[in-house]
Design brief:
The complex is a heterodimer of chains A (452) and B (623). Chain A has 452 residues and is of the alpha/beta class. Chain A is 45% helix and 18% strand. Chain A is globular and about 80 Å long. Chain A starts with 5 loop residues before the first strand and ends in a 5-residue tail after the last helix. Chain B has 3 domains: 460 residues, 3-Layer(bba) Sandwich (FAD/NAD(P)-binding domain), CATH 3.50.50.60; 86 residues, Arc Repressor Mutant, subunit A (Orthogonal Bundle), CATH 1.10.10.1800; 55 residues, Orthogonal Bundle (DNA polymerase, domain 1), CATH 1.10.150. Chain B contains 19 helices and 22 strands. In chain B, strands 1, 2, 6, 7, 8, 9 and 20 form a 7-stranded mixed beta sheet that branches. In chain B, a hairpin with a 6-residue loop joins strand 16 and strand 17. The longest helix of chain B has 23 residues. Chain B is globular and about 90 Å long. The chains are: A alpha/beta (452), B alpha+beta (623).
């Protein structure tokens, strides 16, 4: 409740010049300090309210973006609580990564209307607003209801339910072990708990790992089309997107910058990026474009590397071949003009022959892209987390359970292990609205024959 | 025929029942200066143990220690009448260490009877209360002989006497426990006040003749070589004069029971009351857990001056002849002679959600409930509620705020919060897993947690409280010293570390860090710690626990503080949840039924979501 520190992206969704991530609550400044490195070396906790530091938002030592961090000290903030606002470059991805970093460092995702609600509870805004806040909360209930109804038969809820059952079993075993010391209870050797613990941890970890993927499946998978100039990247992009988004010409170097296009492929959305042709150049403008192409090559989830099948590979091609990795699909374009490229250079890679201009081989390529996405961690049976609240709960469950495992490995007594397991269970039950203590005692009585 | 009534007296507090709840309630009320009377159907069985002849056990041992810290009597009485004492769960961690003692039940009862008799301000009266009615501001109680009493407050501690009915096979009859008279007419009178009652059930195994058991066939269960008392005030270590024995059921036992299962009143549908899930009868265990090869039973002595033995784990409501047959299938019991048969007993009780956390009825000012009447089970659970009801009845009379223990403060608080907030569908037993704060709510620190409250309300005397403060300062100073003490990497120390399988040290390391290592403990480092003061054993234990588990305790303390904060946000009595704009219908109904005293309690009601709590907070802020 109001003791928690919450965070959310405060700017409207969509592209904009800047995005603001707001953190509010008693730990706001502490959490912000964990996520931010100022260029001056100062900490946010050292500066006064209404002042700002320039620096970078970091997550596990990697920089997400430059940011201006503004500190508001309670009660002089919108919510009346300690607040930090990170202003970062606009764009959904950057803002979401910043939010995730902040959540990782201890903030909870804010509910809809949460900042306004806090502002009201802290006496910062007047009564007339209270009712509109309740409407927001109710609307959220409605949405939550619809979402939960929709998700009832979904994989997430099934997967989480099965993890809850396993954790309950584990928790009940611990409890029965402690609460019925004299009873003869079969299969209650704490050593056996290790394997169940590992199994649940593994599944939670998988859910966390697929979170990125899950979001991407909803938001779109970044897919970069790269290649040296004039191999037909833009033609391919158009063939894939069936639009005239990119300018398709025969003049080398037309696409100087990165052009994005969203394409629905099967049940997933691809964010196709047409990049500037990679080649050695002294032109400053072109060079910048090439640099961006390399950045895309690194950050995209899928890379479509396009080569001209009708001419031998040159140095530019080889630079590209050296830069790509497992997530790349080799596209030999212009295959209708005969094969002159030395395909032995692509040994062990996924190679698709197409003719973008004639729309040949595009279906094969689509299938190759989908296969690549699936091969990359996503098992179709995996549950995929889609929102930050779910992610937060699962992440907490994982961390508490990990602590339980560590405690067990360090031979800490089982009472301490037990409370970590219960915390983990609590985090998962939060998704379903059930309560730990009742659930555990029900489980004990149904599973174990105990008592005088 | 209407009997002639006569006026028999005025009291501040009347306690109906002289069991574990009644005794604590009556003693607390009288000790806090209220003019108190305790009614019991039979004075020969004050604080009787009609089931297990033992006190304590997991979570229950915690309750006894907490009760003692608040000024209750159970811990002292148990220490004085212990036959065997064991600290359970040593090795499983300090949160679940639990003290359990075999008790001489006759002596215990005698001790408690004498204690209530000697208590000034307390009258003890053998009588069956048959009627309760409102008389102006007072409650009038009438006995079966026509005596009526005017009382400011009444505490129901009726146990299994209220509407008691005993079942043995096809036979059933009205009775209290252990062959006593039941309270037959009070139930109707309570119902006519508008308080609904429901039926719960419990049961007990047979008592058998010691000389008919072949102990050579049984496993022995010894007590601890070094015993510790329940009570902070007990100076002597409890006695350890008896052993218990363990036996097992077998296929033949199972067969006898299954062959006769249709003769069980439970399976024949005669008993409607909900039985305790945690303490099933042997026929229940065999039917529900059909795969289990054998069930354990414990053979426990009932006292020093009796040959009666209790067969823990073998309660039953099968006919007596079937009981004889299945008990005799057990190795060691082939020739066993039953002295008292096993039976089930059904009784009346309330839905505890009708009570506030003070244990006073929400709708009937001055009426309190405690023990089995409230739907709980167990002597310790009953005693804990009796104490709280007694304290709060006395405080009500003095015009003081009731004592409400947060679930974050104690097992007693957890027990009462569970009962009044969540209710119960079968007799409620305390377990360590019921507390989310169990690494903080330990039996070793019950005194620290609760004795300041016991002192403040007036049940703990000054010298006891001073002794506690001294103990706390010893502990705190020692922890400070340990944190400031660094041990150098001597050859001797490293040899010891090597021997115990832990990493040797290269530079000076704090004593604290060494104690935190799983392989080491406070005692094992004694010889390397020359400045260590001589401290009492219990202080040493506390020091070790607080250092070793510091991280986990801190983690729990954060949760404890959050709970206490939410419980500090009170909800006015007269709130009309229908007026709370934006509250969901289900939440309105649940909140209106439970009428939580604060936001913390409201958030624990099933069916009340975090969004509902938000809406409620906004409403309260608006008011």
């Amino acid at each position: 409740m109001i003791d928690k520190t919450v965070a959310a992206i405060s700017t409207p969704p969509g592209e904009g010049g800047i995005a603001v991530i707001r953190i509010s609550g008693p730990e706001a400044i502490v959490i912000a300090d964990k996520s931010f490195r100022s260029y001056s070396g100062k900490f946010l906790s050292e500066i006064k309210g209404y002042s700002a530091l320039y620096g970078e938002v970091v997550s596990e030592n990697s920089v997400i973006d430059d940011a201006v961090a503004t500190v508001f000290r309670a009660p002089k903030s919108f919510t009346g609580e300690n607040t930090v606002e990170f202003s970062v470059h606009g764009g959904r991805l950057v803002a979401k990564n910043v939010l995730r970093a902040v959540i990782k460092n201890g903030a909870c995702p804010a509910d809809r209307g949460e900042f306004t609600k806090r502002a009201f509870l802290n006496g910062k805004i007047d009564l007339t607003k209270a009712e509109s806040i309740i409407n927001i909360i109710n609307a959220k209930n409605e949405i939550a209801l619809r979402i939960s109804q929709a998700a009832k038969n979904g994989r997430i809820s099934k997967e989480i339910d099965s993890l809850i059952e396993k954790l309950l079993e584990l928790s009940a075993s611990f409890s029965v072990y402690a609460d019925y010391p004299d009873d003869e209870i079969e299969n209650l050797n704490p050593e056996n708990f290790h394997s169940s613990l590992d199994e649940i941890l593994y599944k939670l970890k998988n859910m966390i790992d697929t979170f990125d993927l899950g979001k991407k499946l909803c938001d779109g998978i970044e897919c970069a089309i790269i290649g040296k100039p004039n191999v037909g990247k833009s033609t391919l992009m158009n063939a894939l997107s069936r639009t005239e988004r990119s300018i398709v010409t025969d003049i080398a170097g037309t696409t100087r910058d990165v052009v994005d296009s969203a394409v629905v492929l099967g049940d997933t959305t691809l964010i196709l990026s047409d990049t500037a042709g990679i080649h050695q150049t002294d032109d400053i403008v072109e060079k910048a474009g090439v640099d961006r192409s390399f950045q895309k090559l690194d950050s995209a989830m899928i890379v479509i590397a396009v080569f001209d099948a009708s001419s031998p590979l040159d140095d530019d091609d080889r630079i590209i071949i050296d830069s790509i990795s497992d997530n790349a699909i080799i596209v030999l374009n212009k295959s209708d003009l005969g094969l002159k490229a030395d395909i032995s250079a692509f040994k062990g890679m996924t190679v698709v022959n197409i003719s973008a201009k004639n729309n040949q081989g595009i279906d094969t390529l689509s299938e190759a892209i989908l296969a690549k996405i699936k091969a990359d961690r996503l098992d179709s049976d995996d549950a995929v987390l889609i929102n930050d609240r779910q992610f937060n709960c699962v992440n907490r469950a994982y961390e508490s359970l990990y602590e339980a495992k560590t405690a067990m490995e360090n031979h800490v007594t089982l009472d301490a292990v037990g409370i970590c397991i219960d915390d983990s269970l609590k985090a998962l039950l939060e998704l379903t609205g059930r309560r730990v203590t009742n659930e555990v005692s029900d489980e004990i009585f149904s599973r174990f024959c105990v008592g005088k | 025929m209407e009997i002639k009534k006569y006026y028999a007296g005025d009291y501040d507090i009347a306690v109906i029942g002289g069991g574990h709840a009644g005794v604590e309630a009556a003693l607390a009320g009288a000790r806090l200066g209220a003019k108190t009377i305790m009614f019991t159907i039979t004075l020969d069985w004050v604080a009787n143990m009609p089931c297990n002849p033992s006190i304590g056990g997991t979570a229950k041992g915690h309750l006894v220690r907490e009760l003692d810290a608040l000024g209750g009597e159970m811990g002292k009485a148990a220490d004085a009448n212990t036959l065997q004492s064991r600290m359970l769960n040593r090795g499983k961690g300090p949160a679940v260490y639990s003290l359990r003692a075999q008790i001489d039940r006759r002596h215990y009862s005698e001790y408690m009877k004498h204690t209530v008799e000697k208590q000034s301000g307390l009258d003890v009266k053998q009588a069956e209360i048959v009627k309760i009615e409102k008389n102006g501001e007072l409650w009038q109680l009438t006995t079966n002989l026509g005596a009526f009493y005017n009382c400011k407050t009444v505490i129901f501690a009726t146990g299994t006497f209220l509407g008691g009915r005993v079942y043995v096979g096809e036979v059933n009859y009205e009775a209290g426990p252990d062959g006593t008279f039941p309270a037959k007419r009070l139930s109707d009178s309570i119902k006519s006040l508008g308080i609904p009652l429901r039926r719960f059930k419990t049961g007990t195994p047979a008592r058998v003749l010691k000389g008919s058991i072949d102990f050579s066939q049984l496993e022995v269960q010894e007590g601890d070589s070094i015993t510790v008392p329940f009570s902070f005030s007990s100076k002597e270590k409890p006695k350890n004069t008896v052993v218990c024995h363990i036996a097992y059921t077998n296929d033949q036992t199972k067969k006898v029971i299954l062959d006769n299962i249709d003769r069980s009143p439970l399976y024949a549908g005669q008993i409607s009351g909900a039985g305790p899930r945690y303490c099933p009868s042997i026929e229940d265990k065999i039917v529900r857990f059909a795969d289990k090869k054998r069930h354990q039973l414990f053979i426990e002595p009932c006292g020093e001056n009796t040959e009666e033995m209790y067969l823990q784990g073998m309660s039953s409501s099968l006919p007596e002849e079937v009981q004889i047959e299945f008990y005799r299938t057990i190795k060691g019991l082939e020739n066993v002679k039953i002295m008292r048969n096993a039976y089930a007993i059904e009784y009346d009780c309330v839905d505890p959600t009708a009570l506030q956390a003070s244990l006073e009825f929400k709708d009937y000012g001055g009426l309190f409930g405690a023990g089995q009447f409230n739907g709980s089970s167990g002597y310790e659970e009953a005693a804990a509620q009796g104490l709280i009801a007694g304290i709060n009845a006395a405080r009500k009379i003095k015009g003081k705020e009731p004592l409400v223990l947060s679930r974050a403060s104690s097992y007693i608080g957890t027990l009462i919060d569970d009962l009044v907030t969540k209710g119960c569908s079968d007799p409620y037993r305390m377990m360590t897993s019921r507390s989310e704060y169990r690494l903080f709510l330990r039996q070793d620190n019950a005194d620290e947690r609760l004795m300041p409250i016991g002192f403040e309300i007036g049940l703990i005397d000054k010298s006891t409280f001073e002794a506690l403060k001294k103990k706390i300062s010893l502990k705190e100073n020692e922890i400070k010293r340990i944190k400031a003490t660094f041990l150098p990497p001597t050859e001797n120390l490293n040899a010891m570390l090597r021997k115990l399988g832990t990493t040797e040290i290269e530079t000076g390391v704090s004593l604290e860090n060494l104690i935190k290592r799983p392989e080491l403990n406070y005692n094992s480092l004694k010889e390397f710690d020359p400045t260590r003061p001589e401290l009492p054993e219990d202080v040493c234990e506390k020091v070790e626990i607080e250092i070793k588990y510091e991280g986990y305790i801190k983690r729990q303390l954060a949760q404890v503080n959050e709970t206490i904060r939410l419980e500090g946000m009170s909800i006015p009595d007269d709130i009309d949840y229908k007026d709370v704009y934006g509250l969901r219908l289900e939440a309105v109904e649940k909140l209106a039924k439970i009428r939580p005293a604060n936001i913390g309690q409201a958030s624990r009601i099933s069916g009340v979501s975090p969004s509902d709590i938000s809406v409620l907070l906004i409403h309260l802020k608006k008011e």
